[in-house]
Design goal:
This protein is α+β, with helices and mostly antiparallel strands. The protein has a domain of 56 residues: Actin, Chain A, domain 4. The protein has twelve helices and 18 strands. The strands form five sheets. Strands 3-2-1-6-11 form a five-stranded mixed sheet, with helices on both faces. The structure holds adenosine-5'-triphosphate and magnesium ion.
């Protein structure tokens, strides 16, 4: 019998809260692709550089979007999947030994799941995600999926992402204040990657750079695994603030000038074109050559590209230099910035627009600033699915019968984070 389940996803960004509601239908064996039934966005001034500074303001923005969702659908959301980012997010690649695997003769999905690495807890830090990168079996490393194999000594390399406990408490309080509990926290750039990258990009090695309002988040994929995470505490806010500071103008008029005239290539801006700024002091307006605005934005873009480049020096892996870049987030819409990043990072860069053709009611959800919320939905959706993935059938073909048995008796296995489907894969299944 079909059951309908409503998922609520919330991207609590530095400039806005974006919430959406989607329905999925489930029966014993199938979860249908999500149908988005409502979306809502509200400005949010409660965060700074991705950190919750003001719980009340954050609560009020979340509440506004939830009320809006309720008025569109008649459904009152009780819980939600909530995005997390900020300069407090940290990562580490760890190797851990897994004990007691292979008691059925070969390693089973259930054993792997229960052997999930629980990194030592550090005071004040909360585990956000623990994502296996690869396994080492009897000294042979780089094994992506050990299910169905036999080994006496198994260890796993894991990408461990942690967040500041205090931050998560504040975000939980903000959600509670808005009347909902948290189903799970999802790291925002990971979510953005789910909605914008193709399987090929995740496989071949790609860096996603999400230029938001308060932070620029980086996440790296290789062989379909997360291998790298970093946060640069600069986003669109600083771009606008440079204009406001230089001309002592209001933030709002500087933001408008950025939107109307911004370009990182000065020659692309009409030489005679002017931007109107409102001064802070007497509310007077001044005309400023648009190319001067462009110059400030260009300088800030170069600085951001250099900060990203510095971060990427931590990426110590073979062929790291050949990894491509996908730019997303609202800040990636600054005309010319992809080209500029391409030059300064020395990598191929493309703009990452979410691609979710299973969204039938809201055809316009293709804006880079919507990548995160759509990715949170993909995360939530795939959490409901019970299909274990087998990567390399060849390695255990002679054990296929046993494997099939194991798989059918472990239907309840939840997908590990690194097995999440891309938007593209969901599109193809719908
Ligand atoms: N066309 C544009 N040109 C330049 N900047 C833009 C453009 N459109 C949006 N932005 C900038 O994008 C930023 C907002 O992006 P986004 O919605 O991804 O941020 P957020 O999710 O609220 O923040 P964060 O992810 O840092 O918490 C703002 O600073 C805004 O000025
Ligand atoms: Mg964001």
């Amino acid at each position: 019998m079909n059951k309908s389940k409503t998922i609520t996803a919330i991207d609590v960004g530095t400039t806005k809260v974006f919430s959406l509601m989607a329905n999925v239908f489930t029966d014993e064996n199938l979860v249908t692709t999500p149908e988005i039934i409502a979306t809502s966005v509200a400005p949010c001034a409660g965060l700074k550089k991705g950190n919750v500074e003001d719980v009340k303001l954050t609560t009020s923005a979340i509440k506004q979007t939830l009320q809006d969702l309720e008025s569109q659908t008649g459904i009152k959301p009780k819980s939600a999947y909530v995005g997390v980012t900020g300069s407090h997010v940290d990562y580490e690649n760890k190797r851990s030994t897994l004990n007691d695997l292979g008691t059925y003769g070969v390693i089973t999905p259930e054993e792997l799941q229960t052997a999930d690495v629980k990194p030592e807890s550090v005071k004040g830090r909360a585990l956000l995600h623990s994502m296996p990168i690869s396994y080492t079996l009897d000294g042979a490393d780089g094994i992506r999926n050990p299910i169905g194999m036999h080994s006496d000594a198994v260890s796993v390399d894991t990408h461990v992402i942690t967040a500041d406990q205090n931050f998560l408490n504040k975000l939980t309080d903000a959600c509670k204040g808005a009347g909902i509990s948290v189903d799970a926290f999802v790291m925002e750039p990971f979510a953005s990657a789910l909605s914008t990258l193709t399987e090929k990009e995740r496989e071949q090695g790609t860096l996603i750079i999400d230029i938001g309002g308060g932070t620029t988040d980086i996440i790296g994929f290789k062989d379909s695994r997360v291998i790298y995470t970093a946060v640069v505490p600069v986003g669109g806010y600083q771009f606008t603030n440079d204009i406001a500071y230089t001309y002592d103008s209001t933030y709002e008029s500087a933001e408008k000038a950025k939107m109307d005239h911004g370009h990182t290539e000065l020659t692309a801006i009409e030489i005679s074109s002017n931007a109107t700024l409102t001064s802070n002091e007497e509310c007077q307006t001044t005309e400023v050559p648009a190319r001067d605005i462009g110059r400030l934005l260009r300088e800030r873009s170069i600085e951001l590209a250099q900060m990203v480049q510095l971060k990427l020096e931590d990426l110590k892996m073979e062929n790291a230099d050949s990894m491509r870049v996908v730019l997303t987030g609202g800040g990636s819409k600054l005309p010319g910035i992809s080209h500029l990043f391409q030059r300064y990072l020395g990598r191929r860069v493309r703009l990452g627009e979410p691609k979710v053709n299973w969204v039938n009611q809201f055809d316009d959800l293709t804006d880079p600033s919507q990548a995160t919320v759509l990715g949170i939905l993909i995360w939530a959706y795939s959490t409901l699915k019970d299909t274990p993935e087998i990567n390399d059938q060849r390695k255990y073909s002679n054990k296929n019968n046993l494997l099939q048995k194991i798989l059918t008796t472990h239907k309840k296995l939840r997908l590990s984070p690194w097995m999440r489907p891309t938007a593209h894969q969901i599109n193809n299944n719908s």
